[in-house]
Amino acid sequence: MNIYIVRKIAFFIFVLFSSSSFSSSDSLFSAGVPSLAPMLKNVTPAVVNIYTINEAQEKNNYIDDPFLRKFFNIPGQPKSKKRNRSGLGSGVIIDSKKGFIITNNHVIAKAQDIKVRLHDGREFKASLIGADPASDIAVIKITPKNLTSLKFANSEKLLVGDFVVAIGNPFGIGQTVTSGIVSALGRSGLGIEAYENFIQTDASINPGNSGGALVNLKGELVGINTAIIGSRGSSGSVGIGLAIPVNMALDVTQQLLKYGEVKRGYLGVSAQDLTGELSKAFGINTIRGSIITRVQNNSPAEKAGIKVGDVVTKINNEPIDNTAAMRNKIGLLKVNSTISMQINRKGKIINTNVKILERKISKQSGIKINTRLQGMVFSEIKENMPEYGKVNGIKIVKIKKNSKAYSVGIRTNDIILSINNIPVQKIEDLEIVSGKNDSEIVVHVQRGKRTAFILLQ
Fold first, then answer.
1. Separation CA 15–CA 290 (nearest Å)
2. Number of domain units in the chain
């Protein structure tokens, strides 16, 4: 029997026999038949459709070609046309009294105009409160008039196999509801965001669902729908949807509401996953943890006595399974907070406290950029470059060999297509995309006909 049908039958049975665990107001029965409709009646008004307008420059590759201009005696300099480009996504009302809506950063990035359409058809113009490209979370605000907000679940208590419902605006066709289960937890290392701790679900998520709600059967928000993983050339759901856990989203949201940006903790180390071979070499009887490969001078880590070769096994008494887990844990801590770290140093357990500080944002060429982009000289793609008219991005014209970018494989003449999944074309885009935070960034790089996502830690 088709596994999809089996799962739906299992879902029906679950709804049938679990209804007694819910209050009458949250009943999963409608007219005596198992149904999600009663729950959705209270949830769907809190999920909104988001429409954005971006201004994009459009060039005519033939008219802009300097040889053709000279051949046809076309006077003057080529001018690019500016056209409005629309985008779409979803959002979740988290504060009905103040009109705050949480969505994905990539939904509203570089938008000049943001509009929100409610479930009842009302439309509002929204303003941007703050955005965090590293976690792909943004907060916008509309006029609070008879709004409905969602209750929050504790995503730490979510289990693989729990039933969930995804609500959003796929392909802009209007609000749509799909159901499924939690397929996996703690997905990371996918190269989608700088900070990854995704909930994986088989509830159908498609373009336009980004920023929408993932809720449990009580109608509580458990995650923010963010991305899909599909086969090459596929633009729709193939059963692997990813959502940001609500606990993580709310931590980021609190800082956006308070500061307009996220002030991330800075430890000052480079690290890699602990393997079985490394574990034996270092005389450690565990393969879980993150091994320190570099400690920056005068950093919080150095002041706390952390050394190269130390294996971080716990932070604030919570196990650290790998480097991604450590990066997420540190990056989501509040600045100036003190944490406890358990370290395995050649088989000896050491406990130490570290004060997490904020890394200073650097300035280069008159704009603020992420420090991980230092050591490179950038240029917009110009007429005299072979990439002109063929690719949109920012060209690296020079790179220092002692830079972070060089150490991870970025080279001269590479083209940066996007940072944290946001396209870049102008030098100013570096500040818009990465200048407001100094956390890890995911850079999409093209070299010749090949492209790759590279994480700058």
1. 41
2. 4
Q: Check whether 457 has a pLDDT greater than 80.
A: no
348 and 433 both lie in a single domain: no
d(CA 350, CA 348): 6
pTM, 2 dp: 0.68
- Residues contacting residue 248 through CB under 8 Å, at least 6 positions apart: 135, 155, 195, 197, 328, 332
Closest to 56 measured CA to CA, from 109, 105, 104, 103:
109
Among candidate residues 26, 21, 20, the one with its CA nearest the CA of residue 43: 26
Residue 103, domain member (yes or no): yes
DSSP 347-413: TEEEEEEEE-EEPPPEEETTEEE-GGGTTEEEEE--TTSTTTTT--SEEEEEE-TTSHHHHTT--TT
* Mean pLDDT computed over every residue of the chain: 79
Q: Which of 395, 440, 399 is nearest to 417 (CA)?
A: 395
> At which residue do the structure tokens 């209804």 appear?
19
Cα separation values, 364 from 132, 375, 376, 377, 396, Å: 21, 10, 10, 10, 15
Quick one: how far is CA 156 from the chain centroid?
18
Q: Active site residue: 90, 106, 132, 188, which one?
A: 106
Residue 342 pLDDT grade (very low, low, confident, very high; cuts 50, 70, 90): very high
Identify the pLDDT of residue 63.
46
CA pseudo-torsion sign 265, 271, 274, 280: negative
Look up tokens 């089996």; give the residue. Answer: 6
d(CA 59, CA 327): 41
Q: What's the CATH code of the domain at 352?
A: 2.30.42.10
Other CB atoms within 10 Å distance of the CB of residue 343 = 21
Q: Which of 90, 132, 136, 310 is catalytic?
A: 136
Same domain, 17 and 84: no
Count CB-CB contacts under 10 A for residue 36. Answer: 19
- The answer on pLDDT for 455 being more than 70 is yes
Q: What is the rounded distance in angstroms from the CA atom of residue 92 to the CA atom of residue 140? A: 10
Clarify whether 202 is annotated catalytic.
no
pLDDT digits (tens, 9 = 90+) for 210-261: 888 999 999 999 999 988 876 554 555 566 889 999 998 998 999 899 888 8
Active-site residue, selected from the candidate residues 155, 204, 210, 279: 210
Residue 375 in contact with residue 399, Cβ under 8 Å?
A: yes
For 62, the token pair is: 């033939």
Annotation marks residue 25 as catalytic? no
Q: Which domain holds residue 378?
A: 362-456
Q: How far apart are CA 241 and CA 281, in angstroms?
A: 38
Instruction: Take residue 212 and report the two structure tokens written for it.
Output: 């929408």
Query: Is there a catalytic annotation at residue 444?
Result: no
